[in-house]
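Throughout our pipeline, every protein is held as a single compact record rather than as scattered files. Nothing more is needed to write down the fold, since each code stands for a local backbone conformation. For reference, a complete record is included directly beneath this paragraph.
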Amino acid sequence: MADHAADATARMWRWDEAAKHARATTEKAPRNTAAWVMLARALGSLHDNAGALEAAKQGLVWQPRDPDLLRSQATALAALAGDDDPLAQAALSAFDRFRAPDEAAALRIACANATARCARERELGHTHKLNPAR
């Protein structure tokens, strides 16, 4: 999570405040890609497409396959240059390549219902018994 204040204000659609908090987090922790995601999303929601594009690019330095950053980049490029722009199309293709499959949640639920191992991995705070190497 980028920052609790940024997340909370974004959930209330208070994008200007979310951007302020996310920007502060990126300044303190520039490798925090979640903060770059939040900043790009907030700036895009404020129609600051150039700012959203720059935030997405900064986050992509650290996580070049992050689907949220790739989506923000594609959205900003399309808004700035048009949907037919080759860079906008390439950015959208990159997002499509690395985004989570639509059925990801259903697959996780099916796995958890089918095996105890999958069910355990979905629990917060579970433990793994470790055996010493021989």
